[in-house]
Amino acid sequence: AAKELNIFCHQMHKFMNASIPVHRLPVHVRRLVMAGYKVGVVRQTETAALKAAGENRNTVFERRLTALFTRSTLIGEDFKQLSNSSQNDTHSDPSSDDSTDWHSTA
Question: What pTM value is reported for the model?
Fold first, then answer.
């Protein structure tokens, strides 16, 4: 993904990692899909408040696949929903260019 998007990629633990600002997610998803890739969006599903109140406070935040895009699915309401959810994301600031809640592993 980093080569297609012309962004920096670095090794994080055992994986190569590239990040983009959340508010640019629809743009980069479209670019990757048009280049022939299937794109999955993984989001954090727990908030810090839920984590602190729960029994699993010492574990990593839960993340789940929330969207999957291909050339045939990158149309209509699903993509609009992706665009809106990235703007309304509670753990990111859409006005900040350094918000990197979406990651790609290469």
Answer: 0.61
